Amino acid sequence: MDIFNQFLGSIRQAVIDAIKDALQQIKQETCEEWVDRTEIARHLGQSPAWVSDHLHTIPHVKHDKAIKFRKSDVDRWRVETFGRHYDKMENHYKASSIAENTSKTAWKPIE
Nearest to residue 109, comparing CAs of 86, 89, 88, 93? Predict the structure, then answer.
């Protein structure tokens, strides 16, 4: 009977831990502040222009003309896209000149 009670106790604790984790995630998602393009660029260590160029892949919401981001969503995207070594993100993209006599730069993925 002792083994059965220990088994039930471990299941009970696992369920409690899972519920606590789920509630913490819900709390974080509902209470998290929405930030603008400049703030998310600062968070990523990039320029607002870089964020604009990659907007089609970065999770965001549009409300009227405002574009807002949640840092946790962007961090998940960053890990899924670039892996855990975010400091190497710059190596994923390389600059190439659009034309020799122009200062504009296009970002292309490194293959």
Answer: 93
pLDDT band at 38 (very low <50, low <70, confident <90, very high): very high
Question: What is the separation, in whole angstroms, between the first and last Cα of the chain?
Answer: 61
Tell me the mean pLDDT in the region 20-30.
80
Residue 60 has pLDDT above 90, yes or no: yes
CA atoms in the 13 A half-sphere facing the CB of 85: 4
Q: Given the structure tokens 């946790």, which residue do they identify?
A: 72
Phi-psi region of 102 (alpha: psi -120 to 50; beta: other; left: phi over 0): beta
Average pLDDT (33-50) is 93
In whole angstroms, give the CA distance from residue 17 to residue 31.
Answer: 21
DSSP one-letter string for 16-71: HHHHHHHHHHHHHHHHPPEE-HHHHHHHHTS-HHHHHHTTTTS--EEETTEEEEEH
Helix axes 37-44, 71-82, angle to 10 degrees: 40
